[in-house]
Amino acid sequence: EGQVLVGWMVAVWIGIKFDLPTIIHLPLALIGAGLAGALWASIPGILKAKFHVHEVITSIMMNYIALYVTNDILRHVIGITNERTETIKESASLASPFLQELTDFSRLHNGIFIAIIAALVFWFILWKTTLGYELRAVGFNKNAAEYAGMGVNRNIVLSFVISGVFAGLAGAMEGLGTFQNMTLNASFTGVGFDGIAVALLGANNPIGVVLAALLFAGLNIGGLSMQQIGIPPELIKIIIAFIIIFVASGYAIRLVIEKFTVKKESKKAKGAGQ
Hints:
It is a single chain. By secondary structure, the chain is mainly alpha-helical. It has 2 domains: 187 residues, no CATH class; 85 residues. 77% of the residues lie in helices and 0% in strands. It contains 11 helices and no strands. Helix 2 runs antiparallel to helix 3 and helix 5 packs antiparallel against helix 10.
């Protein structure tokens, strides 16, 4: 969540303060957002790699720092009116009148293409390169990866940096596409926390994440319309919670089955040896 906020802020700052051609301005804002997210994510990554500090604790603590630091920068550096910044320049905008008209004037924008391309690029890196193999190996078993000669600490930090880039870009999608500005936040947006659930449902596979994101988006947006026929929107949150519980239960059941299978095989091996 904190990485989303700092990426959002940097993208909006670049979108407001610079006056450049679109071919330079938009990529600059996206790159700035990605780098901001990467920098923010590197802190819990370094703490995890060097001092074995649990990443969930440090990331949540960094979220609150990001929330209040970005609010302060919005007030005193970027400048706000009526609790929000001015609108970004058109040269940095991801807005698409064609997509809006195609979707009954929703706020869908060109960021959807960036998101799909990013997922495909990450799929290629994760599954088709040596770097991706090392990242997955360290994630599955860092002791085995270290025994194989892989740089465990380097890959831990790198995994945080890469995820931070994507989170920063997610913030840029909000600032350059959905809202075209940034508002003072009294609390978290929820985008970052939803991302955890989406990743879980997508089995940490980039293609699965895209499909899971579409499902969550359909449920959340559809839930807003359900109010018109007297169905409480909170029902959607309950459905999402059940989905997460069932997916998590699948992992737990698989782990138990694997343990029982290993025990049975070891007993069989002992019996055959005797």
